[in-house]
Amino acid sequence: MDKVFEALASTARRKILAYLGGGEMSAGEIAERFEFSKPALSGHLRILEEAGLVARDKRGQFVYYRLVPDRLANTLYGWIAEVCPVAGPLKRESRARARGRTAGRHR
To answer: Secondary structure of the chain in the HEC alphabet?
Structure first.
């Protein structure tokens, strides 16, 4: 979860994600939209990939990037569940029910 939030901390990386929201793009197409160096772009894309937010596919001499939307959605849901005021009691209730089912099987 920390890697996702670290990746989202950068405005440039959030912009890259927004561009990829429109569909798959090559590294060159992404680079056309920014004024930073190729090594800087590679660094941003690497961070997004390591966080599991984007996936890359090398086709010939080109590298294409696409979003991995489930990763972002699951991370945000997990974080919201942690800070939500009702999440604690619901988690405790779920654990208690799970323990009750497990205890019933061992009798």
So the answer is: CHHHHHHHCCHHHHHHHHHHCCCCEEHHHHHCCCCCCHHHHHHHHHHHHHCCCEEEEEECCEEEEEECHHHHHHHHHHHHHHHCCCHHHHHHHHHHHHHHHHHHHCC
